[in-house]
TrEMBL record, chain B:
The lineage of its organism: Bacteria, Pseudomonadati, Bacteroidota, Bacteroidia, Marinilabiliales. PANTHER family: FERREDOXIN-TYPE PROTEIN NAPH. Keywords: 4Fe-4S, Electron transport, Iron, Iron-sulfur, Membrane, Metal-binding, Repeat, Transmembrane, Transmembrane helix, Transport. PROSITE patterns: 4FE4S_FER_2. It comes from the Bacteria. SUPFAM superfamilies: 4Fe-4S ferredoxins. The chain crosses the membrane at residues 12-32, 52-79, 123-141, 153-176. Residues 200-230, 231-260 form the 4Fe-4S ferredoxin-type domain. This is Quinol dehydrogenase ferredoxin subunit NapH. InterPro entries: 4Fe4S_Fe-S-bd (IPR017896), Electron_Trans/Redox (IPR051684), NapH_MauN (IPR011886).
Length: 261, 265
């Protein structure tokens, strides 16, 4: 009888443990998920993709200490950003693109990686940073009203590359030009100097994280006028094994059967 | 004064390390930069919190070799030499919880809200933190750790972290005696497990003991003192933080620091 009693106790203990672990784990997990679900957060240059960055960041703040402009901050409870991870708000202090990349270089854990600032086997270059992408809200941009501004264009550390000016006739007056800032997403680093420089009360040009500011066409549209993109057809065709399928797939719109069906 | 020599030494070490971190951030001193999660000494040697690294690995990210080696160095120091000394000699939260512990004794605050947690609760938290890290892909304890919030609040001057530190203080003061360090903290649990066989231990001499129970009164991990007055031996439990409060309060020379080299036992 005694052994039955102890066995019952052991089983009860195990059940209690399982319930504690299960509910505790779920609450814990949900709690950390809500703290990391920030829609808008800009990370230092060379940061891994957000999901991996959150795994890798050890929250030591060495990047924050390395930053000479006090751009980077560590998230506190209540900021809505994963506690202790570094971020910056360009409207108050943007990233000034230090050429020696002290923040990225200081990261011990690999959450910030100099390799992500390298292109084509050249040494790491801060201008390869992709912290986000500047986006313009035309309706609140004075330049688009037809008033000459150029503040963001002049401030941009990659002037005439990341932001260029387009000239357009001002149809309202019929005699002036509009000098319109245009952001080039292939060059823009997301440093946010433009956002800080914008003279509007609430910045008309602002940096958004890449996943919030970029679209994706998908593989099935091809720029037929670009040789390199055009080649993708041939590459894709090679991947298909069945020759017949390829022909029918390419020519299916020319196939009369389509109408009959 | 002699009664507090280890306490004073501990506070000097704790506050010096804290000061060096603060100086690293505010004055750019290079002696010690970063914080208790990961630090760099004189711009050359990385040191990391092995428990934090364990969570990062559990979350599915292979951390860089510099932090892995840094964590290994720290781990070896505590496994071989220090045991759970991090908790009482380094951790800044210890200053807060010791204060709560002392105030509790001074004002005879008895637990009114009756919450009893088993001492091994922290090992469940420890196991759970690794499971949650793996399932949710994020170092689970690091996100909510009051210790990290405390040292970040001090080193980086943030304000919001103090709220959770206050919660820990109040729990320790009014709800559960030695609640945080003695029952909940998984980092303490981690060092309790890995530091069990370390060399530095407190040694008890039964023949000198008068059963005055002064040591039980000051110990935040009183179960580790179970042999006191019964047999002469090392305090073998890994939960002992080597804080030496028992050594200080003992008027009978029945407790002292000693080195334990018998790995077989």
């Amino acid at each position: 009888m005694k052994s039955m009693a102890t066995r019952r106790k052991v089983i009860q203990r195990m059940m209690e443990g399982a319930v504690f672990m299960g509910t505790g784990g779920l609450i814990w997990g949900k709690a950390i998920q809500t703290t990391t679900k920030a829609d808008y957060v800009l990370r230092p240059p060379g940061a891994l993709k957000e999901k991996n960055f959150l795994k890798a960041c050890i929250k030591c703040g060495q990047c924050v200490e390395a930053c000479p402009y006090d751009t980077l901050k560590l998230a506190e409870p209540g900021d809505g950003i994963a506690n202790g991870t570094p971020y910056f708000e360009p409207r108050s202090i943007p990233c000034y693109l230090c050429t020696d990349m002290p923040c990225t270089d200081s990261c011990p854990s690999g959450a910030l990686d100099l390799k992500l600032l390298t292109k084509e086997e050249k040494p790491a270059d801060i201008n390869n940073a992709k912290m986000g992408l500047a986006v313009i809200h035309k309706e609140s941009c004075l330049a688009y009203w037809g008033i000459r501004c150029e503040a963001c264009y002049r401030a941009c550390p990659l002037i005439d590359k990341a932001i260029t000016l387009d000239y357009e006739v001002n149809k309202r007056t019929g005699m002036h030009a509009k000098l319109l800032p245009i952001v080039h997403s292939d060059v823009c680093t997301g440093c946010g100097v433009c956002e800080q420089s914008c003279i509007a009360e609430k910045a008309a040009i602002f940096v958004l994280p890449l996943d919030k500011s970029t679209g994706e066409v998908g593989d099935h549209y091809i720029k037929g006028w670009e040789k390199k993109d055009e080649n993708r057809i041939n590459d894709d065709v090679k991947k298909v094994d069945d020759e017949k399928d390829v022909e029918s797939a390419i020519d299916y719109l020319n196939d009369n059967d389509l109408i009959d069906d | 004064m002699r009664k507090y020599k280890f306490l004073i030494l501990r506070r000097i070490i704790q506050l010096s390390i804290l000061f060096l971190f603060v100086a690293g951030n505010y004055f750019g001193w290079e002696l010690l930069r970063g914080n208790y999660s990961s630090a760099i000494i004189v711009d050359s040697l990385h040191l990391s919190d092995p428990y934090a690294i364990l969570q990062i690995l559990a979350s599915g990210f292979l951390a860089s070799s510099s932090v892995l080696i840094g964590a290994l160095i720290i781990l070896l120091i505590y496994v071989l030499v220090g045991g759970r000394m991090f908790c009482s000699w380094i951790c800044p939260m210890n200053i807060i919880t010791d204060l709560a512990f002392r105030l509790r004794r001074m004002f005879k605050i008895e637990t009114e809200v009756r919450i009893s947690l088993p001492r091994n609760f922290r090992y469940y938290i420890l196991a759970l933190s690794l499971i949650v890290s793996a399932v949710f892909g994020l170092a689970a304890f690091e996100i909510i750790s009051p210790i990290s919030m405390l040292h970040r609040a001090i080193v980086f001057g943030s304000g919001a972290g103090w709220a959770i530190v206050a919660v820990v203080f109040l729990i320790d003061l009014f709800i559960l005696k030695a609640g945080w360090c003695g029952h909940i903290c998984p980092l303490g649990g981690f060092y309790s497990l890995v530091g069990k066989q370390a060399v530095i231990k407190v040694k008890h001499d039964k023949d000198n003991c008068t059963n005055c129970m002064a040591c039980f009164d000051v110990c935040i991990e009183e179960p580790v003192l179970s042999i006191v007055g019964k047999e002469s031996d090392f305090i073998r439990s890994g939960a002992c933080t080597n804080c030496a409060r028992c050594i200080e309060v003992c008027d009978d020379n029945a407790l002292k620091y000693a080195l334990k080299f018998d790995l077989k036992k």
